[in-house]
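User: Can you recover a sequence for this backbone? Please restate the input before giving your answer.

Assistant: Of course. Working from this structure:
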């Protein structure tokens, strides 16, 4: 029997819109703005085409002018964070309305505020978020010890947290768009006291490293999806902070925490979401090539590339794009 090309295409030819977000002002360590470039230099786009048979459209780089927002206590570089994310939200919405999955290359994790906001607009709010990270990133200006906004994107997005800001940020383009019942954390191992309060109060789905150790990564993924998307009908967004991976494999990042995910577990998460057919947005953030020795920098970049490839159905074997039709032999 001949295997039709239409079946091969259904088995994986993702349409991807790639956008660079070389943003570092959500935290205080220089170098994370180089993340998009080092991922591209590692031939990410070529590998997406080769291993995933991807149809890629390059949307370039987010550019912005800092907003004239007034200085805000305990919100580091608020004007820059607001302006960058406004542009990213617009571009994310455009990419998704073009029928493509949006791949955002960061930059620090404050950019997930914009990418997920744009995702919600493109999909009319019908979105569930898988947040893979060592940290919960659900602080506000009233709870953060540092004011670093890469630790606040979930709080900016969550409807339930609106009342917990000392001076709630106001935006002309965004209002909280995600319910915490549709957010699932994987890999947490460094949680601030007020973040623990929010997790407990709102019953947020959390699978930390102890759960992963005891249950196995596939059971964790299955459980997260059942809880945050019980009807299997939501558009999915994967926000992947490279510090979720153990520092021995991905230590070139600003806030490494020992005892993290194995690379194969990160790949398993990404691949499982690809298999749902509903992964419409992905962030890869916090790769900082200024940190760590050269060998660790290379391992971190390679790990990030492999996880991205897995999210788009990487095929290291079978069904290359130029495979001829399969026909039965006519010989005896």
């Amino acid at each position: 029997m001949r295997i039709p090309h239409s079946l091969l295409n259904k088995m994986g030819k993702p349409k991807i819109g790639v956008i660079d977000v070389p943003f570092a002002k959500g935290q205080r360590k220089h170098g994370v703005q180089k993340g998009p470039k080092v991922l591209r230099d590692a031939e990410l786009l070529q590998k997406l085409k080769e291993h995933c048979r991807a149809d890629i459209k390059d949307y370039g780089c987010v550019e912005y002018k800092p907003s004239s927002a007034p200085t805000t206590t305990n919100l580091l570089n608020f004007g820059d964070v607001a302006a960058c994310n406004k542009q990213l939200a617009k571009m994310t919405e455009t990419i998704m309305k073009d029928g493509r999955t949006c791949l955002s290359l960061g930059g620090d994790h404050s950019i997930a505020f914009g990418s997920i906001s744009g995702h919600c607009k493109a999909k009319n709010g019908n979105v569930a978020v898988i947040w893979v990270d060592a940290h919960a990133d659900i602080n506000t200006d009233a709870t953060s010890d540092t004011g670093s906004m890469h630790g606040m994107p979930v709080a900016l997005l969550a409807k339930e947290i609106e009342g917990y800001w000392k001076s709630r940020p106001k935006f002309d383009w965004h209002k909280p768009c995600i319910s915490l019942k549709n957010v699932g954390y994987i890999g947490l191992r460094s949680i601030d006291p007020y973040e623990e309060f929010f997790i407990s109060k709102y019953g947020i789905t959390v699978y930390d490293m102890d759960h992963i150790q005891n249950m196995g990564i596939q059971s964790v993924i299955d459980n997260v999806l059942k809880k945050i998307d019980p009807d299997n009908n939501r558009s999915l967004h994967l926000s992947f902070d490279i510090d979720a991976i153990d520092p021995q494999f991905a230590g070139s990042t600003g806030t490494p925490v020992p005892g993290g995910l194995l690379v194969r577990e990160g790949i398993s998460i990404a691949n499982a979401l690809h298999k749902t057919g509903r992964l419409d947005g992905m962030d890869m953030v916090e790769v900082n090539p200024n940190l760590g020795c050269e060998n660790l920098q290379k391992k971190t970049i390679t790990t990030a590339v492999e996880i991205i490839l897995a999210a788009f159905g990487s095929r290291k074997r079978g069904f290359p794009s130029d495979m001829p039709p399969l026909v039965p032999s006519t010989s005896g």
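That completes the design. The domain at 15-311 is CATH 3.40.800.10 (Arginase; Chain A).
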